[in-house]
Amino acid sequence: MPNAQLRRIMIAKNVVLLFAAFMLGASLLAAIREWAPVYFNRKLLELKDRPDPKNAAAWLSAVREDNFRKAILASSHLVEDDENVKLPQIDYLRLMEEAGFKSPLLTEHFSQIDFLGWRSAWLLQGLAEKISRADKSELAALLKAVSERVRLAEPPPGTKPAVTPFEIWERGWGDAPDRARLLCALALQRGYMPMIAAFRGKNDMISGFLCEFRKGSELAVADPRGGTLWEGLSIESLLADPDKIPPELKNSLGTEHVYLYPAELQDYRRVNGELQRRLLSSGAGGIPVFGREPSGQLESYLRMSGMGKNPQASYCVTYWRLPIAAAGGMPGFPQRWRKTQEKAK
Fold it and tell me: What is the pTM of this model?
C-alpha cells in the first residue's frame, strides 16, 4: 500500500477517534451539568439535616444527670414539633384504643414519660454492659443476673405494674412477665432482637413465657421463670424437641402460643423515633437503644426468623400489650391522653 494512502487512512482514523472523544466528553459534561446540582444539593441537605453535636451532647448529659428540664430544652433543638408529622399506623391506633389512650399520644411533642423511658434505657445500657462481662455468653450472663436479682413473687393486690423495665430491676421482685420484660430490655441494649412467646393454658389464661433472641448468627431461647438458656435453638425448634424441655416448664406450656414484640409505649411515639434518628446522625456515642419503630422491628424479626415462608404454618405475631398499659401509671402521664380522664385526687 502506498505511503500516501496509508497516511490518509491513519488521518481518517484519528479524526474518527477525536470525534468520538469529543462526543463522549460532551455527553459527560451534559451528565455533570444535569446531576451535579442534584448530588451537591442532596449533600447540602444531609449536612443541613445533621444535628449539632453539641445539642446531642447536651441531651445525653441531661439523661445522665436525670435533668428533665435540660432534656426538654435539648430535645427541642433536636426534634421540632412539626417535623415529619404523619398519620399514625392503624395498628398503633388500635393498640392505643385497646389501652384506653387517645391517638394524640402518638404524635404530640416530647414529654416526661419519654424522658423516663430514655432514662431507663440509658441505665439498662450501662447495666447490660457491666453484666455481660461476667460470662462468655452475654445472654447467659444477662439471664443469670435477672434470675438472681428479680425474686419471683406475685404482686400484692393493688400493685401497679412497673412503668419501666429498670423499675423491675430496682424493685427486685416480680413475676415471669416482669422477668421477661427486663431480660428483653437488657438484651436489646446489647444488640439482640428480642421476641416473647406467651402460652395459653387450658383455661385460656397465659400459663408460661419463653424469650427468643437473635443477633447475626446467634440464636437462643430463655425461660425467664426457670432460668434455663438453650443456645442455637429457636422457640419453634425447641417445641419440636420436647425432650429438651424440663418437666416443670413443659407443664406450663400450653398447646397454643402467640408471639409478642416487647416494645415500650414510648417506642410507638413519633418523637422518640425521630430523636433516636437525629442522635445517631449526629455521630454522638453512648446512645441507648430506644424509640425504634416497633413495626419495623417486627418486620425484621419475621425476615430473620423465616416466619411466613411456610404457607402451611400459621403464627400469631403481634405487639405486647403489658408495657403499653403499664406506662399509663407513669408520673406526669398527661390526662388528656386518656379516653376517660381520671379525676384529680
Answer: 0.82
